[in-house]
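Hi C.,

You asked whether I'd gotten around to modeling the 311-residue construct. I have! Everything is below, sequence then structure, no commentary in between.
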Amino acid sequence: MNNIHKVLINITFFSVIFLLIICPQEVRGGEKDNIEKHFGYAESLFKEGDFYRAITEYKRFIFFFPEEKKTEKCYFRIGESYFEAKKWAEAVEALNVFKAKFSSSSMLNDALYLKGMAEKNLKKHNDALSTFEEIIKAGSGESKNRAIYQKALLLVDMKEWKRAGEAFSRIPEKSVLSPGAKIFSSGLENIDNLPRKSPTTAGVLAAIVPGAGHLYTERPRDALVAFLLNGAFIWAAVELFDDGEYVAGGVVTFFELGWYSGNIYSAVSSAHKYNKKVEEEFFENLRNRTSLSYYHDNKRSSNYVILSMRF
């Protein structure tokens, strides 16, 4: 009996030791499997374009596994999801969080690029310029080149033609963005040759003959309205003064001066609008010929900028 008792004690002891060694591994294995499932589910939602649910799952992953390496990717994906959902302000905020937490990340340039593009869409041009400049100073290769390209496009939007041309000229010949940069550079060289209307000329013509300034700026309908309206008031004032109705004539003249001044102001404004429209159409044509898009390769889990060109 004593021998049997000793055997049972030994079996129990070694069983306990075995369980102490094996169980933690099984628990760890189960936890690892759980981590992969959580992250995989969030990634599947992102790839399907269900960005809001993906954001929720990435945040859930960060909450449950704060020390896991994949949290870095989760923080990036949250910003990227907001960007893809066109929630620009939320994207900027999320990407700023990523930048603060992972300042040495291999994904930092991608995060900054998305942040700059979101700021651009928010019309925060100076913020976007600073963000792209940050990439330019620290980046290299195509990462740097795409930041230079976007900086140049921002300067175009800000009508800083000279600085934009200088930025486009910094794109290396070997870069995939070089053809697009050359198209913009040549376009900027011809910016002064665009057909424009002189605001001064438009104002002078409108002062001489109401409606002439609008006709000059290729707005015939406005020209006709200005001519008839001012003509009617002038004719009425003349008739009233001829009939000795000086008070009524003075009142009509007072109102006519308002219409007359408005006609001049409107003609000058029409010239500015004409020039703005010409410039916008010119650059829109350049953009259409050199379409730049952001692309995420799900298989390689990499981000790319694609330049599409039309001839």
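If it helps when you're writing up: The two ends are 97 Å apart (CA to CA).

Thanks,
B.
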